Amino acid sequence: MPDPKRERQRQNRQLGRQAQLEAARQAKRKQSTVRIVIVVVVAIAVAVVAAALFGGKSDKKKTPTTTTTAKVTTTTVDQAALAKIQCNDTTPPDNPKRPTFTAAPPMTIDAAKKYTATIDTSCGKITVDLDPKAAPNTVNSFVFLAKQKFFDGLTWHRVAKDFVIQGGDPKGTGSGGPGYQLNDELPQGTNVYLPGVVAMANSGPNTSGSQFFVVTGNGGLNLEDNYSVFGKVASGLDVAQKLESFNTGDGPPSRKLYILGVTIQEG
Question: pTM of the full predicted structure?
Answer without folding.
Answer: 0.74
